[in-house]
Amino acid sequence: MSEPSLRELEEQRERLYAQLAATGDFRRGSVTENYRRCGKANCACAQPGHRGHGPRFLWTRSVPGSRTRGRQLAPGEVGKVRRELAGYQQFAALTGQIVEVNEAICEARPAAAPAAAESPPGQQEPDGEKDDMHPAGPVAG
Ligand SMILES: [Zn+2]
């Protein structure tokens, strides 16, 4: 398997950016479907095995540093919200791919030839592989 060229990677990134620009409305969270008992003793929902009144649809999302927030959805709104939630999954997948391709581009793009003034004479070390390298910190991945 051959590595994609820098040009191919850049084309891939262009396509991803185009997809990103075409992404519709999206939101985080999930839709839950709830049933509840009203508490009236003579109501049908008080019978054993009755699942309760409903369904009642809630859009919930957990906000970092805060508690989970929810809002009850109007019945006609549920389909729209579900599409918007799916849109977020698409957005998140795209951004992940964009990060990946950008990292590959960074690795593939050669460094510009250093200006002569940037390297003081006598300070250049050979860029060979060393067996006694100690990474400064944990290496992710
Ligand atoms: Zn009831």
Core attributes:
alpha+beta, 16% strand, 2 helices, 141 residues, 33% helix, binds zinc ion
- The averaged pLDDT comes out at 86
Fraction of residues in H or I helices: 25-40%
Across the major sheet, the strand order is: 1-2-3
The overall strand count is: 3
Number of separate helices: 2
Derived from helix and strand composition plus strand pairing, the structural class reads: alpha+beta
Q: Describe the biggest sheet?
A: 3 strands, antiparallel
Low-confidence segments, given as residue ranges, are: none
H and E order: HEEEH
What does the radius of gyration come to?
27 Å
The termini sit apart by: 21 Å
Q: What is the structure about, briefly put?
A:
With 141 residues, the protein is an alpha+beta fold.
